[in-house]
Amino acid sequence: MKKELVFILWFLTSIYTQAQIKVLFDATKAETANNADWIIDADAFNLGYNPNPYIGGREANPQRFPTPDQSTVTANTQEDYWTGANSAWGIELVQYGYQVETLPYDGAITYGDAGNPQDLSYYDVFIVTEPNILFTADEKTAIMEFVANGGGLFMTSDHDRSDRNGDGVDSVDVWNDLMQNNSVLGNPFGLLFDYENFSTTTYSIANLPGNPVLHGYFGDVTALELHGGTSISLFPGDNTSVTGLIFKQGTNITLFAAAEYGNGRVVAIGDSSPADDGTGDTHDNLYNGWYDEGNGSHRKLMLNATLWLAQDPAYIDGFANTNRIKLIVKDRYLQVKSPTELSVAQISIINMQGQLLTTQKYIPLGINVSFIPKGLYLVRIQLNNKAILIKKILLD
Q1: Comparing C-alpha atoms, which of 164, 180, 134 is closest to residue 38?
Q2: Are residues 284 and 329 in the same domain?
């Protein structure tokens, strides 16, 4: 009996471990050099860059696991619980239910290497914010294989000539080298960062009501601010899925893009400022773009995008804690059965091309969908301006 109980506990633990989404933040490419601190937590401040990292400076040197341990994070934990300009990003992912780690400066970017405890195959999302050291040929192959096999890559660049460690290479160079000089023919993601340097505030958001990055679990994205950033050129001839989601005001110049590659996904943004929570290395001048700018949209954008990259089953087919919501179609009426109070909810129906067909107030007896042609659609339920469910449904 004791052995059976031990086995059951091991089995349940194994299932939980396998199911939990794991996010890896990179720190191998001089992400803390000069006035940069693109990490979730550091206990030591002893790195230098000349141009490669070495022990002997005073820049943040993040360790693999943030401290205090993420198991102690609660719904009320503030982002300064950890020390890093991306600590808010990390804390909120843990509060959502994910596990976060950092790949330290001397870590290895590999895929399929069982000898590397931080091999990319153990993670669902790889976040690299403003890298300043080129990826090696082997690292580029590893990243491409990671995405092709279902991983999510978050690519954050910065403006032209933003070389933080003095090696003659900035983040635009790093990302474009990854996409142009790799083991895959052509431009696998269908995008490149432009060699530009500008600041802007934009409210030009793609009209895609069903897009889970722009209208996801954490809310609707309505604005974006760049402070010394760059734009993105799209090449749908190389990747038909590449899509611009946010644009420079009054233009079709892309500032945030998303694409699928193989079984995985990528997103790209032209500035690191939106992810800055204003805290971290006291030697650096940090600014609060996470909470204070972009009409409050920056955290929504970055978190929605992370969930989309993770291909989180709870996020794709009913958000976390709402999987008990049921959608029923009867006599051309859509009924929503939920243990959650939905009296003030808004229910939207969106076609598979992303076009909004109707938004109606929740009615217990169901909403009339007789005017909508038979077919597959997305149903989005919003409560207090927050999407709590996006789910596919067949209207017949």
Answers
A1: 164
A2: no
